[in-house]
Design a protein that fits this description.
alpha+beta; Pnp Oxidase, Chain A; about 40% strand
């Protein structure tokens, strides 16, 4: 099966499920060097009159360097398949292991950032904005206590959806 490009307005499905229950891979870099990580936080919507994604990556994650240092990243969705592989990519660092070798995922390099042949849906995103999640911004302190007791802050990235690829 191959991918075909579709209009972003043709996206269907519940992204609460796609992101929160089925998860996604955030990937950035190039054919020479890239990294991917599993994410279950994020969203899509409209901001500044633009179709965008919202992704959150801890500054300590290896993938952070790749997203931070490249103009594009991808979000790959697998429809609830490959949960073992996505779990592996979420629990292991690309600094220490070859995630691609260990999971058998097949990278594709025909877009501005890598994505995976096994994906059902890919969003190619161009970075527009980033901002650190910081303690000053919390109105409700419970998430601050629950998720940031170690002060390992997330960086929030807003990316314009420049291409949507869907499996035929």
């Amino acid at each position: 099966m191959s991918f075909k490009e579709i209009n972003v307005r043709e996206l269907d499905g519940n992204f609460f499920t796609k992101i929160g229950k089925e998860w996604m891979l955030i990937t950035a870099g190039d054919e020479e060097k890239f990294n991917t990580m599993t994410a279950s936080w994020g969203g899509i919507g409209i901001l500044w009159g633009t179709n965008v994604t919202f992704t959150f990556i801890r500054q300590s994650r290896y993938t952070y360097e790749f997203v931070d240092n490249n103009p594009y990243y991808t979000l790959s969705f697998f429809g609830g398949n490959l949960m073992k592989e996505l779990t592996y990519c979420g629990k292991n660092s690309g600094r220490d292991v070859d995630k691609i070798k260990e999971t058998g995922l097949t990278p594709v390099f025909d877009a501005e950032a890598p994505y995976f042949e096994q994906a059902e849906l890919v969003l190619v995103c161009r970075k527009l904005h980033k901002q650190t999640i910081s303690p000053e911004g919390f109105i409700d302190k419970k998430p601050l206590e629950t998720f940031y007791s170690d002060k390992d802050w997330h960086e929030a990235f807003v990316g314009e959806i420049v291409k949507v690829l869907k499996k035929d």
